[in-house]
Design brief:
The structure is a single chain. The chain is mainly alpha-helical. It has helices spanning 14-57, 96-106. It is built from two helices and no strands. The protein is elongated and about 90 Å long. It starts with 13 loop residues before the first helix and ends in a 9-residue tail after the last helix. Residues 31-70 are annotated as: Disordered.
Length: 115
């Protein structure tokens, strides 16, 4: 509080001190706003002239040609139209013991609990 008080002392009536402090802030803001408004009015006239000129020169950007599907960036390219149905997935047969071990190892994994 001592940094806010002009006398460096804690005020007797805190509410009155706060009201005076914020009144001074409001007056300072009004002075700044009035100075800024004067500067803005002269600048806004120049901006209006520029806006009128800009509106006359506004052109629509050229339309981009249709490019089709987006190509893969970080993975093997996949195009469903070029998918070869004759390619069969690789299957690695498992013994009954391997199947049981795999089931036991994934039974506590959340993603596999519903299987």
């Amino acid at each position: 509080m001592s940094d806010l008080s002009p006398t460096g002392r804690i005020p007797n009536d805190l509410v009155e001190f706060a009201a005076d402090y914020f009144d001074m802030l409001r007056l300072g803001r009004k002075k700044k706003d009035s100075k800024a408004a004067k500067a803005d009015s002269s600048a806004s006239k120049a901006e209006k002239k520029e806006c009128v000129e800009d509106k006359e020169e506004v052109q629509e950007p050229p339309k981009m040609p249709a490019r089709g599907r987006r190509r893969a960036v970080a993975a093997e390219a996949y195009n469903p139209n070029e998918h070869d149905a004759s390619v069969k997935p690789v299957v690695h047969p498992k013994t009954e013991e391997q199947i049981q071990r795999l089931k036991k190892s994934v039974e506590n994994i959340l993603l596999f609990k519903s299987l």
